[in-house]
Every structure is written in structure tokens, then in C-alpha cells.
């Protein structure tokens, strides 16, 4: 059975690429456009990995990350954070809140896919 | 004791003495008489009692007259003499005793005057010596003061208790209390720095300095930043040590960093907008581009969608870039040290230089007087002159016309000439040439292009084929000059901005009362009013005040303010103070002035001549303004009566006291002039009070109270 990935990003221009790439790579892809929607989607159907943008409307990526980790059932969910801010403090905060990896925009799609693949292979 | 009382006292003693002598003589006589003789005497006296009393009274008259003459000739003159000798000795060596009383006393007076003369001469000689010795010291102090006053940075030196011993004019400007801002005291000698800057910050910094001293840190300096109104100040604190290495004070160096912080934060914001602001868009483009590249077999619909993503994002990125750059255009210029200069001044400099070095006549009609530029005027004028020289050599120009125009945020200067046109290619070549006037191949010298880049300027040429006019354009950005605060003009003479004697003085404690008069800080003040009856609606129309710190009247730290009384000013009062309704119209009202005066007088003892009068005016305003003057008050009128009780009441007017104590009177009947005279008089009274055992504030106040009662009873 193929693994599921939730893309939580409010920018359609990146979602279109990510969605296409992940589908081509054989993942089952879901999309959420803000933090609240992302949480609801996770409750409905917990994905194997969340591609989480930091700057989300309604609920920020950090908050979503925190809420995921608060739920014992979601401890094994992989979280890869995406951000347009490349400051070290933010990276460190994301990792502290329980993200498994942190990727700064602009990124190489190859590396992103490799990272996602590596995260899902850990299990 | 008053002269009349003293006469009555001596006369009664004399009558008592005479009476008892007569009684004794009578008694002895009576004892010697036999009974017959006694009877004869009794019969002789019988019925003549009244005559006897009159006779006794008559006998008293010559004695009384003699007593009066003697009193006037000796004891009264002696008291007066001793007061006057006291004046000569302590206060005014030029004063001479009045020659009154008996011939002996007059001779004594003359001898005293001769002695005073000799004493005076001796004193003068000593003074000259001291003067010479002090001159050298003074010179060194002046050097320091000159250095300080020329410093751009604000410098304050304080003792351990935070009292200001030295400041420069830059500090007093920077820390000037702002009527709209926080209620701070003005900078002044002897004032507490804690009234000006946050005490906790200074104490904390001082603590760090102490720590570093203990750790033998080679640079025991602390820094802090504090906001003052809209300004951000950066302070550096360095310790002042005595010979034993003990901390006795500190130096504060203040910089207004408002502008540089603002500039830095804007630059940070720009950098952030240019980096982080472009990450997302770049990320989208890259992801889309890589996807398209990776899947060449992608269907047309998808391909089109990705193409749209790329072009949308690229457009967004360009717009973002444009927007950011236009917002921060002024930040992107190289930060070469540039000075503000009027555009017209630049033209005048060019005109002069062209004429002097190239013999080119420049015509200029004059133009906008208020256009400011940021320039390194020397290098710009040199570079342009060299360019002009090349144009003269190539094109044979003898005469040019300057034209000045404003284009948006730029000033456009045109050099117009008729004749041969300038080839733009040639201009580019010249722009690359070094513009060193000495050697053309000097590697360190800038080219015209570099000079222009420093100024954010551009240069181009245009030829108008129709009119035959050629123009060389120089475009420079307009700058906003920093507003230069005008220096206070009322300061005359060399400013006294330092007083290092304060190093050895303790801070003002609640035990103000026990402090010696010499060591206190005073505010001497005077008011001019519309009349003499505050309770009947007379108002203050002027307050003048000066400060006395460490036994010195500080001429530079004065307070002088006219006040609009919002009522008519009687003619007779105008004759005294010379203030007309026109001069007072539009001045601030008493409600605005009293808070400022209160701040000025903070932490000092108030001194005024006939202080009761001025204080009554201030107290009547308490309810209206909420300003209370609760500090101790001393009155030079009462203090003068205290040290010279032998002088009559009308000899304690300010002019008389000033004349007696050798204080020159200037500007009488202006509030500040009278305050200054009062201050000088007060300083002369302090040693005279000390002679009478009045040393502390408490003693002075209690003694004053007693004279006041004495006067009231009189």
C-alpha cells in the first residue's frame, strides 16, 4: 500500500508542483490550505508524513507541529517543515517542537523527494 | 538693644545712683543732727516736698544730657565701629568707617581707616600673588573647557553621588528638558544626574564599572542605551579615580544614536526583504521548473499550468524587488562621509573654480535657495573642474551657463554652452579617468565615475541640433538636512561648565538643615509684579533666577521668563519694571511657567530679597497651578538685619546693602538683574553670619524668624 503525504501550504503555486511530484513518486497525496484544515485532515485520515509550511494562516506550522506531537497516536507521523525564513533559531525551534526535518525555500525538488523518501523509510 | 532703650536703661541707673547718694548723704546728716536741729530741718522742709522733687528733677537734667552725649560719643559709636570694622574685615575691604562721636572716637576711626588702607594694600598684593598662581591652573582648566565645548559628543562628569561637576554645551542641548516630554530637570552644575537620566540605569552601570575595577579590567567601562523622549541615547560610563584608586566619580559620554539606529534597522529590514522576501517566490519557481524538466513527457495542460506558475512568480518577484528598492533608495547609496550643502553654494564653488583654474566664465541667474544636497564638495568640485578642463581643451568652450532644476527627488544641474557638441563616448572615457589633480596615474585617486557613485549622481550630455545648444547634465539626489538647533544666545562671556570642587562635597541629604550654609545649593530669584497686593489680583509678570552652587553664582545657569498676566498693567508699576503690555502679550501664562521654575529650583534652598513678598505671590498660585514650593527659604533682608542690627530699617534695602557690601548693581528692576544682585549679596552675607555663630541652614532660619518677630513688634 502506498504511503500518504499531507501537503499543508497556503501557496497554490508550490502546492501544484509538490502535488505533481509526490503523485509521480507514487505517494497518495492530500492537500490542506491552512493550519486548521491540516489538523482536521489529519484527524480524518492520519497521513504517514506531513509536509508543513511554517507560515500558515489561522494556525501556524509550529502550532500544528506541536498539536501533532501532543497526540500519542501520532507520535510516529513524520513531519518535514518547509519555510521561507532561513534563520537558525527557527530551524532549531521547529526541530525542538518535534519536526523530523527542516527544509528552507528555495529547495531542490530532488533533495526534497530524497528527504521524504528517507523519512518514510525509517519505519 | 536699640539706642533709645539703652539711654533709658542708663538714665534709670544714673537716677538710682544719684538718689541713693543723696539719701546716703541725707541719712548721715540726719544721724549727726541733735533733736533741736532735726526739728528745725523738718520745719524747714515741711510744705516744700514738691519743691524738693523739682530740685531733684532739675539736678537730673544736666546729668541726663551729659549721659546722652556720652552714650552718643562712646558706646554707640563703638558698636557702629565694630560693625563697620567687621564689614571691612570680612566683606568689603574698600568700606571705610564713618567719623562720628567724640574727638577721641573720631581719631580712633581715622586710625582704623588708615589701618584698613594698609590692610587693603597688603590684601591686594596677596591677591595679585594668588592670581598669578591661579592663572596657570585656570589656563589648564580653560583648555579642558575649550576641548569639552568643541566636542560633538555630550560629556558629563559626575561625582559618586551623581551630582554634575562638568558638562559641555552639547550635553546641555541634548538633555534639555522638553516641555512635552518627560519631566526632567535641566543640566546644571551641582544638579543630580538622576533627575535627568534614569537612576536605575546609572546605578547599574556604576555597579558594573566597580566590578570591572575590582577585577582589574584594563578597560573598566560600562555602556547602556536609554530612551529620552523620541531620542535614543547611547551612554558610555568611565570611572574617575583618586590617587588611591578609589572611585570618586564617573564620566558619561552620550551619543544620540536615534538616526543611526533607525538607519541600521531600515537597512536590516531592506536586507530581510531582499533575502527572506524572495525565498518563497524563488522556491515556487524552482520547484515548478525542476518538475517540468524532470517530466518531459508531461501533458500539455500540466505543462501550461507550470509555465504559468513560473511566469506569475517571476513577475511577483520583479514587482517585489522594484517596490523594495524604491522604498529604500536612499539606503543603497555608498556611505561615504557627506556633508549637507546648499545647491546654490555648490554652483558658486564651481563658478569660482572654473574661473580661477580654467578661465571659463560662468553665468548663473540664481535659483532655489532651499535645495540641500549631500556632498563631498571638495572631490566633486575637483572632478567636475577636471572634466570642464577636458571639455575646454577639446571643444574650445569659453563660457557656460548654469541651470538648476528639480526633478522629483533629484536636483538636475545643467551646464549649457553653444558650439561643438560633446560625444557621449568621449564623456564615458573621461568618466573613467582618475581625477587626481596631481598625477593622472595615481592609483588611489577616484575616477569621476566613482565620485559620482558616492553621491548617487548621474552624468550625461545632450545636444539640441535645432538651437545649437549643448547641455551636460549632473543629477544629484536632494537631501533633508538635519535641523541644527540654534545655540542659546543669552550666554555671555566664557561659560562656566565645570566645578571640580564638588568632588569633595557630599550629596544633598534629608538633613539639609544641619548642613553649613556654604555647602548648600541655592536658587536666588526675584519677581516683577503688576502691583504690591497679590490678594487683590496683582500678578507676577516676570521671574528671574540664578543658581548658587558651592559658593559660586552661576551666571550661565539662569532662568528668565516673562509672563502674560492676562490683566491690565498699572502705569505706575510700568515705570518701575519697564514692562509694557505689548511685551507681555503672547508670553506663557503663570500656569505654564511655574512648573518650569519649580524644576529649575528643584533640590535647592530658595533665596530672595524680602522673600515674604515673592513667596506670597507663589503661594497664592498653589491652588490654581498645583505647584508648591516646599523648599526652605532664606531672605537677604532679614539676614542683613541680622548681621547689621545697628543700621536702620531703610538701610536694608537691596541697593543699600549691595553698596555697603561692595556688590556692583546692574540691571536693577529686572527680575534676573535683581536676582543676580541678591545672589551676590547673599554670598557676602554668609561669612558675616558665620561671625555671629550662624553656620547652618537651621540656625539661619531660626535667627531670621526672630528678627522677623522683632520687626513685627517694632
From TrEMBL, chain A:
Keywords: DNA-binding, Phosphoprotein, Transcription, Transcription regulation, Two-component regulatory system. Gene3D superfamilies: 3.40.50.2300. Residues 4-120 form the Response regulatory domain. Pfam families: Response_reg. The modification 4-aspartylphosphate is found at residue 53. PANTHER family: REGULATOR OF RPOS, TWO-COMPONENT RESPONSE REGULATOR ORR33. This is Response regulator.
TrEMBL record, chain B:
Residues 521-691 form the Exonuclease domain. Keywords: Coiled coil, Exonuclease, Hydrolase, Kinase, Membrane, Nuclease, Transferase, Transmembrane, Transmembrane helix. Its EC number is 2.7.7.7. The chain crosses the membrane at residues 49-71. InterPro entries: DnaQ, PAS-like_dom_sf, PAS_4, Ribonucl_H, RNaseH-like_sf, RNaseH_sf. SUPFAM superfamilies: PYP-like sensor domain (PAS domain) (SSF55785), Ribonuclease H-like (SSF53098). GO terms for molecular function: exonuclease activity. The keyword Nuclease applies. It comes from the Bacteria. It catalyses: DNA(n) + a 2'-deoxyribonucleoside 5'-triphosphate = DNA(n+1) + diphosphate. The keyword Hydrolase applies. Residues 120-154 form a coiled coil. This is DNA-directed DNA polymerase. The lineage of its organism: Bacteria, Pseudomonadati, Pseudomonadota, Gammaproteobacteria, Pseudomonadales.
Amino acid at each position: 500500500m502506498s504511503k500518504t503525504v499531507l501537503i499543508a501550504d497556503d501557496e497554490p503555486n508550490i502546492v501544484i508542483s509538490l502535488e505533481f511530484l509526490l503523485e509521480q513518486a507514487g505517494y497518495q497525496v492530500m492537500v490542506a490550505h491552512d493550519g486548521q484544515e491540516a489538523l482536521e485532515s489529519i484527524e480524518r485520515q492520519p497521513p504517514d508524513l506531513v509536509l508543513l509550511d511554517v507560515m500558515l494562516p489561522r494556525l501556524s506550522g509550529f502550532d500544528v507541529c506541536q498539536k501533532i506531537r501532543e497526540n500519542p497516536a501520532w507520535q510516529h507521523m513524520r513531519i518535514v517543515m518547509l519555510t521561507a525564513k532561513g534563520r537558525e533559531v527557527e530551524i532549531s525551534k521547529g526541530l525542538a517542537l518535534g519536526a523530523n526535518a527542516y527544509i528552507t525555500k528555495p529547495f531542490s525538488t530532488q533533495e526534497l523527494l530524497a528527504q521524504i523518501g528517507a523519512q518514510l523509510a525509517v519505519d | 538693644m536699640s539706642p533709645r532703650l539703652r539711654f533709658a536703661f542708663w538714665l534709670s541707673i544714673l537716677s538710682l545712683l544719684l538718689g541713693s547718694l543723696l539719701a546716703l548723704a541725707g541719712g548721715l546728716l540726719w544721724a549727726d543732727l541733735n533733736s533741736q536741729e532735726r526739728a528745725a530741718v523738718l520745719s524747714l522742709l515741711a510744705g516744700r516736698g514738691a519743691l524738693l522733687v523739682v530740685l531733684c528733677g532739675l539736678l537730673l537734667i544736666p546729668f541726663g544730657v551729659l549721659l546722652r552725649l556720652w552714650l552718643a560719643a562712646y558706646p554707640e559709636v563703638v558698636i557702629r565701629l565694630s560693625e563697620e570694622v567687621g564689614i571691612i574685615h570680612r566683606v568689603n575691604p574698600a568700606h571705610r568707617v564713618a567719623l562720628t562721636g567724640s574727638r577721641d572716637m573720631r581719631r580712633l576711626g581715622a586710625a582704623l581707616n588708615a589701618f584698613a588702607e594698609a590692610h587693603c594694600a597688603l590684601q591686594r598684593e596677596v591677591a595679585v600673588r594668588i592670581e598669578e598662581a591661579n592663572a596657570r591652573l585656570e589656563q589648564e582648566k580653560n583648555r579642558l573647557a575649550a576641548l569639552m565645548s568643541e566636542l560633538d559628543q555630550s560629556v558629563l562628569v559626575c561625582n559618586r553621588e551623581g551630582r554634575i561637576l562638568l558638562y559641555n554645551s552639547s550635553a546641555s542641548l541634548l538633555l534639555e528638558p522638553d516641555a512635552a516630554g518627560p519631566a526632567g530637570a535641566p543640566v546644571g552644575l551641582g544638579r543630580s544626574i538622576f533627575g535627568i537620566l534614569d537612576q536605575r540605569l546609572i546605578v547599574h552601570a556604576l555597579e558594573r564599572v566597580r566590578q570591572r575595577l575590582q577585577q582589574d579590567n584594563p578597560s573598566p567601562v560600562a555602556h547602556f542605551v536609554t530612551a529620552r523622549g523620541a531620542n535614543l541615547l547611547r551612554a558610555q560610563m568611565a570611572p574617575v579615580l583618586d590617587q588611591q584608586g578609589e572611585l570618586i566619580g564617573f564620566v558619561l559620554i552620550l551619543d544620540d544614536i536615534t538616526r543611526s539606529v533607525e538607519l541600521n534597522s531600515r537597512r536590516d529590514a531592506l536586507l530581510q526583504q531582499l533575502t527572506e522576501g524572495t525565498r518563497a517566490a524563488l522556491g515556487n519557481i524552482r520547484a515548478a521548473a525542476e518538475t517540468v524538466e524532470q517530466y518531459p513527457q508531461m501533458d500539455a495542460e500540466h505543462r501550461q499550468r507550470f509555465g504559468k506558475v513560473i511566469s506569475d512568480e517571476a513577475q511577483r518577484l520583479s514587482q517585489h524587488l522594484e517596490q523594495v528598492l524604491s522604498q529604500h533608495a536612499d539606503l543603497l547609496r555608498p556611505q561615504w562621509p557627506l556633508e549637507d550643502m546648499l545647491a546654490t553654494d555648490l554652483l558658486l564653488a564651481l563658478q569660482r573654480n572654473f574661473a580661477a583654474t580654467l578661465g571659463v566664465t560662468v553665468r548663473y541667474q540664481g535659483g532655489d535657495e532651499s535645495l540641500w544636497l549631500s556632498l563631498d564638495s571638495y572631490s566633486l568640485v575637483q572632478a567636475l573642474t577636471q572634466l570642464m578642463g577636458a571639455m575646454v581643451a577639446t571643444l574650445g568652450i569659453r563660457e557656460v551657463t548654469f541651470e538648476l532644476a528639480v526633478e522629483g527627488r533629484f536636483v538636475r544641474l545643467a551646464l549649457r554652452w553653444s558650439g561643438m557638441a560633446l560625444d557621449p563616448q568621449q564623456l564615458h572615457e573621461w568618466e573613467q579617468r582618475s581625477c587626481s589633480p596631481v598625477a593622472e596615474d595615481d592609483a588611489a585617486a577616484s575616477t569621476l565615475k566613482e565620485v559620482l557613485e558616492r553621491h548617487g549622481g548621474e552624468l550625461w550630455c545632450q545636444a539640441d541640433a535645432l538651437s545649437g545648444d549643448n547641455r551636460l547634465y549632473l543629477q544629484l539626489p536632494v537631501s533633508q538636512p538635519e535641523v541644527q538647533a540654534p545655540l542659546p544666545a543669552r550666554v555671555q562671556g566664557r561659560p562656566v561648565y565645570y566645578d571640580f570642587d564638588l568632588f569633595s562635597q557630599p550629596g544633598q541629604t534629608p538633613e539639609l538643615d544641619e548642613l553649613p550654609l556654604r555647602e548648600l545649593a541655592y536658587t536666588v530669584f526675584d519677581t516683577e509684579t503688576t502691583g504690591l497686593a497679590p490678594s487683590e489680583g496683582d500678578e507676577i509678570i516676570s521671574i528671574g533666577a540664578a543658581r548658587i552652587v558651592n559658593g559660586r553664582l552661576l551666571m550661565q545657569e539662569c532662568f528668565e521668563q516673562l509672563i502674560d498676566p492676562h490683566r491690565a498693567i498699572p502705569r505706575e508699576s510700568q515705570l518701575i519694571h519697564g514692562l509694557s503690555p505689548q511685551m507681555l502679550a503672547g508670553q506663557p501664562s503663570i500656569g505654564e511657567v511655574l512648573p518650569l521654575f519649580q524644576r529649575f529650583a528643584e533640590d535647592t534652598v530658595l533665596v530672595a530679597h524680602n522673600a515674604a513678598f515673592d513667596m506670597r505671590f507663589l503661594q497664592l498660585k498653589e491652588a490654581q497651578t498645583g505647584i508648591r514650593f516646599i523648599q526652605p527659604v532664606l531672605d537677604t533682608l532679614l539676614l542683613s538685619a541680622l548681621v547689621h542690627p545697628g543700621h536702620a530699617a531703610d538701610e536694608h534695602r537691596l541697593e543699600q546693602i549691595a553698596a555697603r557690601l561692595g556688590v556692583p548693581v546692574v540691571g536693577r528692576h529686572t527680575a534676573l538683574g535683581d536676582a543676580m544682585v541678591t545672589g551676590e549679596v547673599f554670598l557676602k552675607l554668609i561669612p558675616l553670619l558665620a561671625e555671629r555663630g550662624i553656620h547652618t541652614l537651621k540656625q539661619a532660619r531660626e535667627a531670621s524668624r526672630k528678627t522677623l518677630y522683632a520687626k513685627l513688634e517694632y
